[in-house]
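Anyone? Bumping this.
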Amino acid sequence: QVQLVDSGGGVVQPGRSLRLSCAASGFTFSNYGMHWVRQAPGKGLEWVALIWYDGSNEYYADSVKGRFIISRDNSKSTLYLQMNSLRADDTAMYYCARWAASYCSGATCYGGGNWLDPWGQGTLVTVSS
Amino acid sequence: QSVLTQPPSVSAAPGQKVTISCSGSSSNIGNNYVSWYQQLPGTAPKLLIYDNNKRPSGIPDRFSGSKSGTSATLGITGLQTGDEADYYCGTWDSSLSTVLFGGGTKLTVV
């Protein structure tokens, strides 16, 4: 069945780095765009980053731009999030999610729609000294 | 402060109906499809509605979605205690090339 498994979270000191992984199975990973979404404790969902199906384009939320890097290895069906210069307000559960589309440009999505499904189970990142 | 605006909470009795609104702008909801996600306590979000009003397989027809202009609405009929969850709207923003979520609405069935 279609499945995403998030891993790599943990406790890290402010200013340090961490890399999250998302292992995909049950579908052709290279056909889909992928996202990272996070949720701070007791808060709502915050979109973090997206990467097109072929890795040719990436987009980031302003809150992480310049510090986080999203990437993918289609040969391993795995999505990554490299998080650098971590701050206390990066503390959150991080979810990967599959885009229904391969990519969206302007108001047009190609290969599918703009919804996210499925989602990984999440991996918790705690930034604390 | 989310770009998409949802009420923080709604409540209704078992068996009743509830609606959850999601308000945006022309660059997001106005020109893109809306999806809805259900997050049960302690679990990952799950797709509930996509393309404004379509239900994935396995989602009961008690759940419905609609869109008009720059607003969208999630409807739930025949409320059950198991529907108690946080509900989020989501869409694509064409001008920002970002995904947007509403702030979330906590549904209480009492």
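Late reply, but here is one note on the structure posted above: DSSP finds no helices and nine strands in chain B.
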